[in-house]
Each structure stands twice: as structure tokens, then as C-alpha cells.
Amino acid sequence: MPVTVSPELFADVSTSSGGQLSICYQTYGDPSAEPLLLIMGLGGPMTWWNPALCELLAEAGFYVIRFDNRDVGRSTRMTGRVSAGMLVAAFVGAHVAAPYSLGDMADDAFGLLTHLGIESAHVCGISMGGMIAQTMAVAHPERVRSLTSVMSTTGQRTVGWQHPSILPAMLSTARDRESYVRNSERMWRLVGSPNFASTAEENRSRAEETWDRGVSASGTGRQTLAVLTQPNRNADLRRVAVPTTVVHGLADKMVHVSGGRTTSLSVPGSELVLIDGMGHDLPRALWPTFVRVIRRTADRARRGVAP
Fold it and tell me: 253, 165 in Cβ contact below 8 A?
């Protein structure tokens, strides 16, 4: 039986400062199934959650919700200038006033769930999305049924670092569609999974779709500053009591595996899944693994299994 897929829709969400923003989202599966909120990482639109993967998750019994974070894709562009100097200062640990925080982005996700009439959901986040998912579990545990944190970290500065080889690519800027596609292809070659490599066609198609959907360099800068100014959640994560699984690739150059290990050590009773040859992406060959892990974590919550 084919999976029901909604058109792209928009939710009006209130911000912590009293404003409003519009979140673009899409759902897969039966609304009466267990809700699963998917949160993408830095600069990534919801389309980086491949539709075929979303359908597999829906077939596994979830009502899947993917969405564009603020400042990405078709969701609201925020305001606030972020300079290179601000990013450098935040990187070395100096105090910098960011336009918004990961907590604000977590509130966006809660606002989307509220818009959909969902009191609580299973939450899976990747990279920055994992940081947002962790923040959700800390801030409002009653609204998070289970937590799956993928290739992410806790905000502790001494773990989850980037490999120096990727820094030049991270600093590259795009003037137009073709330069964005070239930069993106180069980045995915650097950070992708060496044992489960995506094809050149897949990387190019994803980059073209991302550009056409809407790329904002200033928006990515604001998200980056939110990541760099995030608090260390190690202590807060010790209070997380929902079933939690941490997934990380042993070949991740964007977020070193120490970030995943520290996340798992911080959350009591969490499961740690380390994958040899996995980098900082969602390779098609590993989709069955991701589905099994998310389903297993959700089943622990459904059975009321304590961490």
C-alpha cells in the first residue's frame, strides 16, 4: 500500500521574542501512527531527508514529519548580521550575542508539533539537528517520546571537533548556482562516508535541488553562530529519561566521533551505535540501519522500558 505524502505546507509559529515565523513542512504516512519529527543539520533543507527514507520510516509505523529549519529552504529568513569576526570570536569561546539560539530553534520544532496537534513525538536529529533534538529533550521531556541523536555532539568544546582538511571547503562562498553546486560536491566528497560513498550524480542532484529551494549564506551564518554559542549540555543530558540512541560514524570528519561518545555517556542508559566507514551523511546503504535503530528506540518508549 503506497505511503500517503502531504504537499509542502506551512505552519505559523510564535517565537520566544513574541514574533512569528513560517515553517515549511511535509508529512509521510498515517496521521494516527506514532509521530516522528526529523530535524536536519546546518544549512540543510528538509529535502536532505530523502523521500524514499521517509517512506521507509512511514512503513515502519511512523507518521513522519520533516521540515525546513528557520533560515533554510522555504521557511522564514531571520534577521541579524553575523560577521566573520563574530564567528571567530565565538569559535575561540568569547562571548558573542547571537541573533538566536538552538533553544529558539527547538521552540520552532515544538511550535510545529503544536500546530499539528501533536503533544509529544519521537525526535531524530542529525548534526545540528541532533543538538536541537537534545535541547528539546532537556527543555520539555514530556513532549519527547524518544531521542535519536545522529552524528552530533553535546556542546562540550573539547569533543566533536572538525577535521582540519575540511576547513577550506567550509569557508568557500558561492556566487551563483553552479559555484554552489561545485562547492557542495567538493564538501560531500570530503565529509561523506568512505565505505558507503554517494555517486557524483546523487551529490550534484542534491546540491541543485538545495540551491533551487533557496540558499541563504547569511542564514547559514546565523545558524553557525547558534551552534558555536550553544551551552555545554553534558550535565543537563544526565536528566534525560526517555529512551535514547546515539548514532555516529567512525569516519566522520565534520563532527568527530568523540561528540557521539560523549552524548551517549551523558544520557543514562542510552544505546551507542558506532558505524565503521560512515562519515557525515545519510548513505542509502545505511537506510535500513537507521530505520531499525529509530524503530527500536521508539519501541522502548512504547513498551515503557526505562533507560
Answer: yes
Quick one: angle between helices 217-228 and 102-115, nearest 10?
110
Give pTM, 2 decimals: 0.96
Residues 6+ apart with CB under 8 A from 221: 82, 87
Hey, what's the cell of 159?
Answer: 569533543
Q: What's the CATH code of the domain at 82?
A: 3.40.50.1820
Host domain of residue 224:
9-161+217-302
Q: Does the residue 202 lie in any domain?
A: no
- Each of the 307 residues of the chain gets a pLDDT tens digit; together they read 799 999 999 999 998 778 899 999 999 999 999 999 999 999 999 999 999 999 999 999 999 999 999 999 999 999 999 998 999 999 888 999 999 999 999 999 999 999 999 999 999 999 999 999 999 999 999 999 999 999 999 999 999 998 888 877 777 778 899 999 999 999 999 999 999 988 999 999 999 999 999 999 999 999 999 999 999 999 999 999 999 999 999 999 999 999 999 999 999 999 999 999 999 999 999 999 999 999 999 999 988 765 5
What does the alpha-carbon distance between residue 120 and residue 35 come to, in Å, rounded to a whole number?
A: 8
Please give the tally of structural domains in the chain. 1
Distance CA 136, CA 227 (A): 15
Distance CA 116, CA 96 (A): 35
- Domain membership of residue 101 (yes or no) is yes
Helix-, strand-, coil-residue percentages of the chain, each rounded to 5: 40, 15, 40
Domain contains 1: no
